[in-house]
Amino acid sequence: MRLRRLSGDRxxxxxxxxxxxxxxxxxxxxxxxxxxxxxxLMWFGQISRSLLLIFVCWLCKPAYADSxxxxxxxxxxxHWAPYxxxxxxxxxxxxxxxxVRAIMDRAELTYxxxxxxxxxxxKIAQTKPNVLIYPIYQTEERKGLFHxxxxxxxxxxxxxxxxxxxxxxxxxxxxxxKKYRIGLIRNDFDHDLLIKAGFELGKQLDVxxxxxxxxxxxxxxxxxxxxxxxxxMKRLLKVHKLKPDKLIPALRIEIDDxxxxxxxxxxxxxxxxxxxxxxxxxxxxTQVTLTLE
Length: 293
Prior knowledge:
The protein is of the alpha/beta class. The protein has helices at 19-27, 32-44, 49-69, 95-107, 118-127, 189-196, 211-219, 230-239, 270-286; strands spanning 73-77, 85-86, 92-93, 111-115, 131-138, 146-153, 158-163, 182-185, 205-208, 225-228, 247-253, 259-265.
């Protein structure tokens, strides 16, 4: 019995073996050069089925192993200027992005980089293999969701911002902010932080896919406060063509010893995670620490 010829096969049908042999045979349908070598051997001499099986498996194994080793890393992140944003040429850039590219180059890994709203990037990193997400804080709630590689940068100062005309909003502590509605990004660090501090979704917290949603609601009076860093807010005001003093800090949010990290999906091979970790350790030693505000 012979295996049936597949559509487009120019070399004829393959010999049929037992189940194990057929698995190997199916492997080299995807590697035409292997098939050609086998046919040449068959043309110039008799070769036993056992030797043919050993030869096929020997050729197929390294070809398959190379495809796994050279698996490209998908890097996902969010728009957070000036740390991460799309430049004039459509390329993801920014202070943090430059550091990530240096780490990947050091690790000698091929990669692609995409910018999405944070909830989408977060989901991709949770559900797909060989994905790296940055920047991300390592919290207790997230520890079992990713392979964390830390530290990536120093902690970024986060603030609650208000309209400069809202003299009625006076915050001495985070507890005082529970009287107001706060715009922030779903699944972002400040979202988790405020939930942990006793804020409630739908009551005090108004979640959005990005900062644009939060600032629009703040300008329209649909929320009273929003979270952002100082440099992040400067950039956001510029993008929306607002005066620099349109929004002002109402309170700095105190952050504990939570680390700012890179994270890779749980299904990413350990060898790949180790390569990225080693590369980041080298970059952290040889380059200036990312100090952000």
